Structure formats: C-alpha cells, structure tokens
Amino acid sequence: MKSFREFLQKGAALGSGLAVGVATSPAFAALDVSGVQTALDSNLSSYETVAVAIIGFVLGVAVIYGILSLIKGRAK
User: Fold this and answer.
1) pLDDT in single tens digits along all 76 residues of the chain
2) What are phi and psi of 18, to 5 degrees?
3) How far apart are the first and last CA of the chain?
C-alpha cells in the first residue's frame, strides 16, 4: 500500500509540475496561442522573457526526468 501512495504522490507532483511547465514553456509562448506571445512582448522586458524561457526549460527537463524515473520505478 505504501508504494501505491508514493505513486499517487509522484503523480500529483508530476501533474502540477507539468501544468506549471506548460504554462511557462517558451514553446507554448512561441505558438502564439490567444496572443500569449504579444502579451509576453508587451508586458515583459527581454530579461524577464529570457528568465521565463529558462524557468520553462528547467521545469520541462524536471517533468521529463520525473516521467522517466516513474517509468523506471514501475518497470522494476
């Protein structure tokens, strides 16, 4: 039962990380979904845009690492 609880906790953390990663991902901003790119261009300075891109990239890598470790853990 403990492993199932751990699995749920990892899944919840992964889901929240994925949501934050999608929200701050430079790839989603570049798609110009409902004016996201223009909002970023008008509201953020270039340094803030770079910071958002870096944060999105780091979160994306963390989410991918979490998924891979979860899959590896389930394979055992």
Assistant:
1) 566 667 666 666 666 666 666 666 665 555 554 555 555 555 656 666 677 777 878 888 888 888 888 888 776 5
2) -65, -40
3) 16
Q: Tokens 């958002």 sit at which residue? A: 52
Quote the pTM value.
0.38
Q: By CB neighbour count within 10 A (0-12 exposed, 13-18 middle, 19+ buried), where does 66 fall? A: middle
**Cα 63–chain centre separation:** 6
How do the domains of the chain map onto residue ranges?
16-75
> Which residue type is seen at 68?
L
